[in-house]
Design brief:
The protein is α+β, with helices and mostly antiparallel strands. It has one domain (about 5-75). The chain is built from two helices and six strands; from the N terminus they run αββββαββ. A hairpin with a 3-residue loop joins strand 2 and strand 3. The longest helix has 16 residues, at about 5-20. This is Immunity protein 35 of polymorphic toxin system.
């Protein structure tokens, strides 16, 4: 069973591989909106410009949160 901190690290690695290379701006996990779904943690994320300055050019639309399974620590996109 992975801890929340370990799951967040897995979500950060997933962002590094699957999301951040596609965007010219910084993408961060929205820590206050992380959800415990029983068998997994869900990590929402968005561009820092949108979070900090409400800059619509850094708003990520239609992105699924990252799901990290508690049993294995495997990360993928959640279709929730």
């Amino acid at each position: 069973m992975v801890s929340l901190d370990e799951a967040r690290a897995a979500a950060e690695r997933f962002l590094d591989l699957q999301v951040r290379p596609q965007h010219p701006y910084t993408v961060v996990i929205l820590g206050e909106y992380v959800e415990d779904e029983g068998d997994a943690w869900l990590f929402p994320y968005n561009g820092t410009g949108y979070i900090e300055r409400n800059d619509p050019t850094e708003m990520m639309l239609g992105n699924y949160p990252i799901r990290v399974l508690k049993e294995t620590g495997a990360a993928d996109f959640s279709e929730q």
